[in-house]
Amino acid sequence: SGINAEYGPYCKKDFVRRFGAKCQKCDEGFSSNDFVMRVRENIFHLSCFRCNMCARQLVPGEEFALLPEGLICAAHIKQNHHHHQIRPESRQEISSLDCNT
């Protein structure tokens, strides 16, 4: 039987596509085999976890900031600190890589 939600029923695949978690950057869903990066309530595909200014991939152990306009790497935090008021709680360090289950 299907899952009933908001004018359902839906098969599991369509329910997950419509209502499941989506990548903060590309707005696409996740498969059970995807590696993801989590920052607070935000989830990113590994390939989408990049600095918005230079598009460089961010890796575990690296400092970054999550701003309303997206992720920025440590180099751009330093370069743009006078343009943005980057609050200490916006700065993060990547500590792990999650496998979406």
Overall strand count: 6
Task: Determine the fraction of residues in helical runs and give it as a percent range.
Answer: 10-25%
Main sheet makeup: 3 strands, antiparallel
Structure class: alpha+beta
Structure described in brief:
The chain has 101 residues and is an alpha+beta fold. The chain has helices at residues 12-19, 74-80; strands at residues 35-39, 42-45, 63-67, 70-73, 91-93, 98-99.
Give structural notes.
With 101 residues, this protein is α+β, with helices and mostly antiparallel strands. It is built from two helices and six strands, in the order αββββαββ. The strands form two sheets. Strands 2-1-6 form a three-stranded antiparallel β-sheet, with no helix packed on it. The longest helix is centred in the first third of the chain and has 8 residues. The radius of gyration is 16 Å and the shape is elongated. The C terminus is likely disordered.
